[in-house]
Design brief:
293 residues, alpha/beta, Trna Endonuclease, Chain: A, domain 1, two-stranded antiparallel ribbon, 15% strand
Length: 293
Amino acid sequence: MLSIKNNFREFCTSYSYLDIKELIENFAIFGGYDSGSIELDDDIFENIEQNILNNYHSLKRKFCQNQDKNTLLQKIALGDRKEYAIYRSSSNISQIRGRVLQKELYQNNIIEKELTREIIPKREKHRYVKKEFRRYVPEDKFRFVKNFDRFWYTFIYPFSNELDNNIQKSCLENIKQGFDKFVSLTFEELSNELIKEDIFRLNIIQSGGYWDIHTEYDILAKKSNGRYILGECKWTNQKVCKNELNKLKNKAKYLKFDIEQYALFSKNGFSKSLKKERNILLFELKDFEYFRR
């Protein structure tokens, strides 16, 4: 199976006429779209309408028809993706039943696990353990193998009744409202790949999202010297300002890792005041052009 980096590089080659912003947006949707060669224009919502909504009935036949599996996949798409949270939010699927479904979905290459990196303090006999940790169990996350499957269960499957009757308006409006939030996860995954590249000389040996009992972080990258870079990704229409750096530093107080630097990734650049800050790495869309090479 190709990594997200290699999948994106292939996508960039196939649609070299798109700019880097358009490539990221379209990859977030059409990565893994296996209905043959498709044309992608510069208007992302026209691409969705032409290639997905107008082909809904034929595409639907390629997706799972099992109700429980579809319920589980929808919860993964719309929730925080944590393993046990899926069952806590569902009165329909027990953990026993859910694990059977998970195994089948793994075998069918629909989902995979993103393993937690959280380390819980050892519980020693006769030693006090904080109340918050007494029954706490770190949770892995689920993620879709194909971006297109994630898009389907985020935006298309919830509107099945309307789309079955060829009513597209509500679905398309929902896509437009939630689009930037949806793309942000793909942007985060690509950012975790980009920061590892040798061209930036950061000596990263491991990078990925990090979550624990307190909060979540888009990027926690471990360097060869044992120290870390903590990062945040912003797929928004505003420039990232100094306030985002301050919020990231405040969040870092919960971590027990040795943070050497901070990194911010932005769709629309950075404020002048933020650019003056020291000990911060700033990545803009132009840096993602590296994946075209």
